[in-house]
Design a protein that fits this description.
This protein is an alpha+beta fold. Helices cover about 20% and strands about 40% of the residues. It has 3 domains: about 60 residues, no CATH class; about 140 residues, Sandwich (Immunoglobulin-like); about 120 residues, Immunoglobulin-like, CATH 2.60.40. The protein is built from 8 helices and 22 strands. It starts with a helix and ends with a strand.
């Protein structure tokens, strides 16, 4: 194979923006009438590919496509995205899809560590008017892992604000994104390396107190085994959390999730009424001294592992990708810290060593 042919094939994996930039450097733009012979045009494309692959490879190395929903949940730099792909945490390489009645649903991206799975599905071909868009719903769909359901899971359409300042789920290209999340909990132990299966029975509308009404019948069945990252920092200790009367017994930190086990000073029954515990994990401190606060939302699971010993366990998902071995302390705060701006004086830092 000629070098120019190899370069042309390599261009399949290069983002269009970089190819266009290289074309511009060589005086070639789509839509412009240039007096190039066929041979010269092929050479120009080959040179463009070579230019992108040699001079522009650093730029391409950090170009990683993430779904619209994942961009919101886990805002990251290009370098962080690239590392997530390389480590298996993020997987955008899946080609799993299903089509029924003119609608195609495909797996756009997964982000999976040992404890948390974020799954972005792309829906194409589903035509909705504005009223239907406001009340769109799916029937079925909750993922299973090696045939077992997760103890905690949920899902929602990804919304964006349009030029009219109203929420829309239909993107500019006509696609719709639906994102699932799931937690392994003690039931599954880990989500890494498991086969995922999602069956969506129908797409429809619901709302205003009325029953669900299907608009497009499926089913759409998606089954695949994505890459994942099982890195985890596990620490067992018995450290006081400031002067709160609480003690931190253990902690597990994964790239996008965390779990803490606390020894309480008195019985707390708020879990029965779905109240939030007063003190919550709000962030971490890294080995270089950087404090990351507000990266954990409300716990995804709360419960006693030993109610007689007053040992409470709480699981969290993170909105920041972490390198577990870079974490050297946990940061706690009270009164729903995810819902407000925190002052330094409110934080309690608990070293892990």
């Amino acid at each position: 194979m000629l070098n120019c042919e190899k370069a042309l094939l390599a261009m399949n994996d290069v983002p269009d923006a970089y190819i266009e930039s290289a074309r511009a450097m060589l005086g070639y733009r789509v839509g412009e009438q240039k007096r190039f012979s066929v041979r010269k045009r092929i050479i120009a494309f080959a040179l463009a590919a070579a230019l992108v692959l040699s001079l522009g490879i650093a730029a391409y190395a950090v170009y990683v496509h993430w779904s619209r929903g994942m961009e919101r949940k886990l805002p990251a730099t290009g370098t962080e995205k690239q590392r997530a792909e390389e480590s298996g945490l993020s997987d955008t390489s899946q080609t799993v899809s299903a089509t029924a009645n003119g609608v195609t649903i495909s797996v756009e991206q997964t982000v999976i560590d040992g404890d948390t799975a974020e799954i972005a599905l792309r829906i194409e071909g589903w035509k909705l008017d504005r009223a239907q868009e406001l009340n769109a719903a799916i029937w079925g769909g909750f993922p299973t892992f090696d045939g077992e359901s997760a103890p905690a899971s949920g899902g929602s359409f990804v919304e964006e604000r349009g030029a009219d300042d109203c929420a829309h789920i239909i993107a500019a290209d006509g696609s719709i994104e639906y994102d699932f999340w799931a937690r392994a909990g003690d039931k599954l132990g880990t989500l890494s390396g498991r086969e995922i299966s999602i069956t969506i029975e129908s797409l429809g509308v619901s709302g205003k107190g009325g029953p669900y009404q299907p608009l497009v019948e499926g089913p759409w069945v998606l089954t695949w085994t994505p890459r994942s990252n099982s890195d985890r920092l596990t620490v067992r200790l018995d450290a006081p959390i400031g002067d709160t009367g609480l003690r931190l017994l253990s902690a597990e930190i994964s790239p996008v999730s965390a779990k803490v086990s606390l020894k309480l000073d008195k019985l707390w029954v708020g879990y029965e009424t779905l109240d939030d515990f007063d003190w919550q994990l709000t962030g971490v401190r890294l080995r270089d001294g950087t404090a990351l606060t507000g990266i954990f939302g409300p716990p995804t699971e709360v419960g006693y592992t030993d109610i007689d010993a007053l040992i409470l366990e709480m699981d969290y998902s993170s909105n920041r990708i972490l390198e577990p071995n870079e974490v050297d302390a946990l940061i706690f705060a009270e009164n729903s810290p995810w819902a407000r701006t925190l002052e330094d004086s409110e934080l309690i830092i608990v070293p892990l060593a």
